[in-house]
Design brief:
This protein is mainly beta and about 350 residues long. The protein has 3 domains: about 15-120, Immunoglobulin-like (Sandwich); about 130-225, Immunoglobulin-like (Sandwich), CATH 2.60.40; about 235-339, Immunoglobulin-like (Sandwich). The chain is built from no helices and 28 strands. The strands form 7 sheets. A 5-stranded mixed β-sheet has the order 2-9-8-4-5, with no helix packed on it. It has a 5-stranded mixed β-sheet with strand order 19-28-25-21-22, with no helix packed on it. The protein has a 4-stranded antiparallel β-sheet with strand order 1-3-7-6, with no helix packed on it. A hairpin with a 5-residue loop joins strand 26 and strand 27 (about 330). About 35% of the residues are buried.
Length: about 350
């Protein structure tokens, strides 16, 4: 069976949404703000040409009208944000769509649309830290290691003053950037870290794109080793073989890497994802790691569909994975069929 293998490529003829902030059928607060992350930078000039609001939009089915929104982009141009001018109508059905945008080379996007619902009131829960790297208590961390924090949702780029790396009471100078549809924050030290030294990662005051404050987070510490890591990680093995058939519907997918990986880049929606080839949908899942972070396990939240359905496990092919030294993993994939 043929399917589209979604590897990053400068030769791709189209661009596409890899990570929307709302999933099909989801219920959101009436104060929601929305985001769509693409697989590559998008040309802002291709958004709603002529000032119309019918190519990239939020639409209220029940009222039969487009929602007035302000549209903006992330610094790397991979994510488009749609902020409604007023709260959405409660208990209505909506859709968020993107048509006719192009990447920086003029290649057209694959058209995208997702439907969702509003609840009866506003959403007040803020972003939650899901992964931090280097992980708490890590030792022998490469002195060229970046710091990465992955949140549960897209965050406000202007609320990162409290995201710092410290050595004792001294803030380490870093370059701060966002990744993974603005769900992740990377702190890249301006000079290598000191050998055999303990550092602390602090995360306070972060807001999501709606303006809700983060959940409380306790600072974590790690200790460096004595050298750098410049070796690219490689795929070692998986519990599922390429093209395997009769895979149990309650399976997990376990992947072993050649060295410790950065857990803050593992996202079940786009960088370490299980894809249902029959429905063209990403399987909702959680990710866990071995104690040494060389093994990652994806656990679907419900059983897969049986009867020979094809699934594809994308491993760093939609969005890069990295090791603790910041070296990227060349993407790969595994396809299999259920029992």
């Amino acid at each position: 069976m043929w399917y589209y293998v979604r590897f990053k490529s400068s030769f791709s003829a189209t661009c596409y949404v890899v990570n929307p902030s709302v999933q099909s059928g989801q219920t959101v607060g009436t104060n929601a703000t929305f985001a769509m992350q693409f697989d590559e930078p998008i040309d802002p000039g291709s958004v709603n040409p002529g000032g119309v609001n019918t190519d990239v939009f939020v639409y209220d089915y029940d009222l039969g009208t487009h929602v007035t929104t302000t549209i903006s982009f992330s610094a790397d141009l991979t994510t488009v944000f749609l902020k409604p001018a007023a709260n959405l109508t409660a208990s209505d059905e909506f859709e968020m769509c993107s048509y006719y945008m192009t990447d920086l080379s003029g290649n057209p996007q694959q058209n995208f649309c997702v439907s969702f619902y509003t609840g009866t009131g506003t959403q007040t829960t803020g972003p939650v830290v899901q992964q931090v790297s280097p992980p708490s208590g890590s030792t022998s961390v490469p002195i060229n290691a970046p710091v990465a924090i992955l949140f549960s949702e897209a965050i406000d780029a202007d609320s990162l003053a409290g995201v710092t790396l410290k050595q004792g009471s001294t803030v380490v100078p870093t370059t701060t950037s966002l990744y993974d549809g603005d769900k992740g924050v990377q702190l890249l030290p301006l000079v290598p870290l000191a050998p055999s030294t303990t550092y602390t990662i602090n995360v306070t005051g972060v807001l999501d794109i709606t303006g809700n404050a983060q959940s409380a987070f306790s600072a974590v510490s790690f200790t460096t080793g004595t050298g750098t890591d410049l070796v690219q990680p490689t795929f070692v093995s998986s519990n599922i073989t390429q093209g395997e058939t009769n895979v149990p519907v309650n399976t997990t997918v376990q992947v072993v890497f050649s060295e410790a990986m950065d857990p803050a880049y593992f996202d079940p929606n786009n960088s370490f994802e299980l894809y249902d080839a029959a429905t063209s949908a990403v399987v909702p899942a959680t990710i866990t790691f071995s104690a040494n972070y060389t093994t990652a396990t994806l656990q679907p939240k419900s059983n897969l569909t049986g009867g020979g359905v094809e699934y594809v496990m994308y491993i760093g092919s939609n969005s890069y994975l990295y090791d603790l030294g910041g070296n990227y993993f060349p993407g790969t994939y595994i396809y299999f069929y259920t029992h």
